[in-house]
Amino acid sequence: xxxxxxxxxxxxxxxxxxxxxxxxxxxxxxxxxxxxxxxxxxxxxxxxxxxxxxxxxxxxxxxxxxxxxxxxxxxxxxxxxxxxxxxxxxxxxxxxxxxxxxxxxxxxxxxxxxxxxxxxxxxxxxxxxxxxxxxxxxxxxxxxxxxxxxxxxxxxxxxxxxxxxxxxxxxxxxxxxxxxxxxxxxxxxxxxxxxxxxxxxxxxxxxxxxxxxxxxxxxxxxxxxxxxxxxxxxxxxxxxxxxxxxxxxxxxxxxxxxxxxxxxxxxxxxxxxxxxxxxxxxxxxxxxxxxxxxxxxxxxxxxxxxxxxxxxxxxxxxxxxxxxxxxxxxxxxxxxxxxxxxxxxxxxxxxxxxxxxxxxxxxxxxxxxxxxxxxxxxxxxxxxxxxxxxxxxxxxxxxxxxxxxxxxxxxxxxxxxxxxxxxxxxxxxxxxxxxxxxxxxxxxxxxxxxxxxxxxxxxxxxxxxxxxxxxxxxxxxxxxxxxxxxxxxxxxxxxxxxxxxxxxxxxxxxxxxxxxxxxxxxxxxxxxxxxxxxxxxxxxxxxxxxxxxxxxxxxxxxxxxxxxxxxxxxxxxxxxxxxxxxxxxxxxxxxxxxxxxxxxxxxxxxxxxxxxxxxxxxxxxxxxxxxxxxxxxxxxxxxxx
Length: 641
Hints:
Layout: E1 3-5, E2 8-15, H1 19-25, E3 32-36, H2 53-65, E4 69-74, H3 80-96, E5 100-103, H4 106-115, E6 121-123, H5 132-140, E7 143-147, H6 154-164, E8 167-174, H7 186-191, E9 209-212, E10 215-217, E11 227-229, H8 234-239, E12 244-247, H9 254-273, H10 284-289, E13 295-296, H11 337-349, E14 359-363, H12 367-375, E15 380-383, H13 396-405, E16 410-414, H14 421-431, E17 440-443, H15 446-452, E18 459-461, H16 470-479, E19 481-485, H17 492-501, E20 506-512, E21 515-519, H18 525-529, E22 534-535, E23 546-550, E24 553-559, E25 565-568, E26 572-574, H19 579-585, E27 589-593, H20 599-613, E28 633-634
Parallel strand pairs: 2-3, 2-12, 3-4, 4-5, 5-6, 6-7, 7-8, 8-12, 11-13, 14-15, 14-27, 15-16, 16-17, 17-18, 18-19, 19-20, 20-27, 26-28
Antiparallel strand pairs: 1-2, 8-11, 9-10, 9-23, 10-22, 20-26, 21-25, 23-24, 24-25
């Protein structure tokens, strides 16, 4: 079965959570079905869901007899233990011959190359593909189709599809995230349950209050987005050149999914048959009546703002059918001496005989902080691509001024986490002009590696590359990165096993308040359009900082120069007591995220880490007298096994 409009194929892609649901959905008006197998996919939370090996084989056979396609999701991040399991599983899938695998971890691409497998590969939405260079890079690595980032509008998708020649897949219906794909670490830091490994506890669906400037605003569910609904905009989807129209819903029941696939399939057929007479709203009321949340077109036609936020049904954090909640507000765990001792003992088990002297790196937000870092002789200074307001981005003259006084400190220029074609234009002009007095670039996405590996500037990988195993680390190194930042989501066992397997230069974020969520959605809009309902000071940050408040704590939110929001830890990450053991494992660089500190606060923190790295041993105090600036200290994901 295939659909065509003006000679271009259109695919309606529907999900299935179980084999029974698959057998019903494949008979509906879809062209293809995607599902997960027994391991290594993003829907591992619900018992009885996903297909067995035998069911995968039968599903492929059923689909192909109907002239339809089957895609298998292998779309979570792999631990070292998962890597070994993945070899066997990928070999099985290569033999089962689905039409493609949908993947997130770069390790899959490396394994397919290493094992000489021939199964086609599609890049998952969790790869967060958002620019042309990323698409070109993935194509060179063997990827034949890309699922675009959720924040991509249709005109950008049309541009990238035309310029790349690669098939694009686009979500048209179902549950969406408010955070950029693979850039949400909240669940892993609070519960030890990684959203990038299929175990998200949905803190985005909690009931928050927003505070700013001493006022409380009635935002209720400020991160809970509506369901995507593009039913009335199929002509625009087809005109954009999107190849595959994807419905979300692998956890939905059979009747709901069959009805949804039939509605969309019928609408596509009606449009192909009579585009001028096409009725956009036929059956639309029926879909709305059976919705799980309210509907939105999300980013398809530009930034949706507060119209994208849901306050009813599952938007409230409750399952529509059962009334049960995904999770309830939970505080970040406090650093404890007992857990620190456990971590130190476990890391000591894999201590290497040969160690290199570790270096310290600090990421700053303004020139005053940058000059302090240079004054204190820190080994590496990172200038961010995303600068928190009210500070402004570093200018070319700023970079020259810092280069003139940097001494032995290595100076790195960072890039935005999300790089549009405009950002590449700007960085191209800066980096291809006169030689800058920098020692390298801090890389945030695969496309930037491809674009700038020929500029002569060494490149190091930032944390949001989500390097979770030695295979993905090796692939990035092969592409030209000289140092990588370890995934911030690693639990203790995953951290220890990964570090012990890798001989590459690795960096760990050891202190500060790194971003737990990075989003296009502007939380500040709540304070600009809503009337306050009360007055209340922030607990740990100044009142001019926006915070999301639950009964368990307050998370500060900073907006960068591009209008994107970064939700940070309520507490401060602190690995100060474990630096020796981390260095013993092979970590060569420790990073302080310094953007939100005053220069005096940052000076104290840097001095404490320099002293510890130079061998100073506190007498009785685990932290050598260092006191938290914010709500306390946490060990983040290392709190969990």
